[in-house]
UniProtKB/TrEMBL annotation:
It comes from Martelella lutilitoris. Its cofactor is Mg(2+). One of its GO terms (biological process) is carbohydrate catabolic process. CDD domains: MR_like (cd03316). This is Mandelate racemase/muconate lactonizing enzyme family protein. The keyword Magnesium applies. Keywords: Magnesium, Metal-binding. Residues 148-243 form the Mandelate racemase/muconate lactonizing enzyme C-terminal domain. InterPro entries: Enolase-like_C_sf, Enolase-like_N, Enolase_C-like, Mandelate_racemase_C, Mandelate_racemase_N_dom, RHMD-like. The lineage of its organism: Bacteria, Pseudomonadati, Pseudomonadota, Alphaproteobacteria, Hyphomicrobiales. GO terms for molecular function: hydro-lyase activity; magnesium ion binding.
């Protein structure tokens, strides 16, 4: 083991290559805090998290002023202890998105450092359950796209070996049904079609929508209600055979526990960047396994591929390219399936020259 002697902090703003519109928002910016931790042996681990559009400077301030100074001199292998200490240090702002996103950047860096020192890829260090994970694509299913574009993207994804696609919903019900039906007719019954409402509906509308989507054999209805409406999700789950998926907007493992205990969902979409890092992500995934519930994480495919390969109940990786502009190579895809990297660490080949060029002005900091 060796103590942490230096922390480096930077943020880049990754603007999506394609227009991304869902039922409640448009994605025009992706603020990405990046943390590098170096230990006394000179080994460095790199971690990151993200916001969509806003909040990045607040995350950076919490990292610079509070969290990173608190881990200088700590043993880098004490990942669980560090996570719990930092969580308590910020107890006045926990549970909360800003704190969880900041914790994730540090926690992923610690896991990367440990994996690099041990010479192990993350998916083996964290469990080693699988060698590949099926992919579904979201990139061609955005709400502003016309039906012809949805169909074309789904057909292309199927031809490339992907097992499914996701369509955003939130247009008038008749339009949503027509759009899903057109894609179903084009790809046939064996190709999965998932839907995502992005928390847009009230309970009565969600029940009505689920009944209409049910006959189209969709794989799940994602975030049909506000994420903090656990009772509403429980009622909806009792009213439909459509699997209900939640998780991208939950920031605490205890919130996932409540959903699972109340049978308020049947797919868990825990996001490492929003739950506070790899440490709580693994706890949620294993907790879901105890309830016989599948994990299909939200976003961050470049990191989630390794975590999904680490646990037995991971079912899908969501294809949304995120890091192309600041990495030297993308996630490996073979016959429509995501393959975790065999390189020691998180499996992300960072391009630090590109990160330096793209750094948000004033965001580069060093803490010793």
């Amino acid at each position: 083991m060796a103590k942490i002697v230096r922390a480096e902090l930077v943020m880049v703003d990754l603007r999506p290559k394609v227009t991304r519109v869902d039922a409640i928002q448009s994605f025009v910016s992706q603020e990405t805090p990046i943390v590098r931790l170096t230990d006394a042996d000179g080994v460095t681990g790199t971690g990151y998290s993200y916001t969509i559009g806003t909040g990045g400077p607040s995350v950076m301030a919490l990292l610079e002023k509070t969290l990173l100074p608190a881990i200088i001199g700590r043993e880098a292998y004490d990942i669980e202890r560090i996570w719990r200490d930092l969580s308590f240090l910020t107890h006045a702002t926990t549970v909360g998105a800003i704190t969880a996103i900041a914790l994730a950047a540090i926690d992923t860096a610690l896991w990367d450092l440990k994996a690099v020192k041990l010479g192990l890829p993350l998916h083996r260090l964290a469990g080693g359950a699988k060698d590949e994970i099926p992919l579904y694509t979201t990139e061609g299913g955005w709400l502003h796209l016309e039906t012809e574009a949805l169909v074309a993207d789904a057909i292309e994804a199927k031809a490339n070996g992907f097992s499914g696609c996701k369509l955003k919903v939130g247009r008038p019900l008749s339009e949503d049904v027509a759009r899903i039906s057109a894609v179903r007719e084009a790809v046939g019954p064996a190709f999965e079609i998932f839907t995502d409402a992005n928390q847009a509906f009230a309970l009565d509308e969600a029940v009505r929508r689920a009944a209409a989507y049910e006959r189209l054999d969709i794989g799940w209805l994602e975030e049909p209600l506000p994420a903090d409406d656990i009772e509403g999700h429980s009622v909806l789950s009792r009213h439909t055979s459509v699997p209900v998926a939640v998780g991208e907007s939950l920031y605490s493992a205890l919130h996932f526990r409540e959903y699972l205990e109340r049978r308020a969902c049947s797919v868990i979409q825990v996001d490492v960047g929003r739950i506070g890092g790899i440490t709580p992500w693994l706890k949620v995934a294993h907790m879901a396994e105890c309830f016989n519930v599948a994990v299909a994480p939200h976003f961050l495919m470049e990191l989630h591929v390794s975590l999904c390969a680490a646990v037995p109940n991971a079912r899908w990786v969501e294809y949304i390219p995120q890091l192309d502009a600041i990495t030297l190579g993308g996630m490996t895809i073979r016959d429509g399936r995501a393959i975790p990297s065999s390189a020691p660490g998180l499996g992300i080949a960072w391009d630090f020259e590109a990160i330096g060029r793209m750094a948000v002005e004033g965001s580069q900091k060093t803490i010793n």
